[in-house]
């Protein structure tokens, strides 16, 4: 959906994308290559960013070094993105058509304070994007509606879209619905159809509750407008919806056209992501492959998992499988914090990312469901359930070379072993006999060489210089070097 923004806005967002994970300084030339735009254009864009958000993002610009973003907080950058999104005519018009379908173009001109020609020019770009996901804006008798091949997929799109623009605050749309009521209906329905531990897992994760609350709101808007699709994957068969007459009455204040039948497919679609198996064979296959997935992941890791942790991790992966099956589009359409979380994880712990990616590919082949797009969700939720996995990295082999005597080298070796004992599942620290060790042929079988000797005359791309007694700065250098091991 970012493609609907003006080109200048797209470039600014792409520049900020680079800054999210960029460490240190970056030159205008390097930035122009990464963003694929001219140096002068990028320089102008950086000027705009600094002028509008320089204080908020703490941007430093140097003629010698380039640009450095001191505030890389993803939430702060997300707020900048939100400002840009809310300035887009295309996105604002799409939102207006969603809430006010079937209106003539004059209506939208007045709502958006733009000319008719601007809206007419915008429509082809809107439909070009929407057509890629099976949707379009239809104009019949100069009346505009957004429709899709799948009503449920359309609701998913707008759930993510509206959350990223406004959060759950839709008061400006006069939808001051009591969110606790929606959560109560959802909780009652989940409790009736899932195990208590599964419902607890869902409700203890705010992102699930927020997304499903917005999905309920979006669906109620569509149902109230007369757009309904009870046939979608027979989703209503999954649900035994729990809603009392007084609860329905409170919803009808805002959505007068809905009935209890309107609620059933909404709950059914949500439940399909937890119990939406086609048959028992599919369920058994996925459960078996889920167990094998985590068996491969934790093979060799020095982690003791209790039964509760295993159940949470396996429930999460099964849910991601069903989510991919029933909602193949990402929740996020504009700014995905889960993606940035996982990309930062990849930058600092590549071996863990690679381990999950490799085994997710195996899972995909075995289940015949392409899960590659769920790698970011998998890493994020696995990290939240079991933070310890981020401190277990691939086996490493270190060589210590000291010019302060062999006993000192053994001291450094034990120091290294103690430093990494909780982080590396299989660590080997060798001690080199200086200076004889320098005459060895190749050192490629070592991941890191730790030494007290500056300008060590050996060929290796990961040498860490330390003091006789390692300082905090030395250990930070070693920490960074360990994360570069792939």
From TrEMBL:
Q: Where is the Mga helix-turn-helix domain?
A: 77-160
Q: Which InterPro entries match?
A: BglG_antiterminators, Mga_HTH
Pfam families, from UniProt?
Mga
Which keywords appear in this protein's UniProt record, sorted alphabetically?
A: Transcription, Transcription regulation
Q: By what name is this protein known?
A: Mga helix-turn-helix domain-containing protein
Supply the source organism's classification.
Answer: Bacteria, Bacillati, Bacillota, Clostridia, Eubacteriales
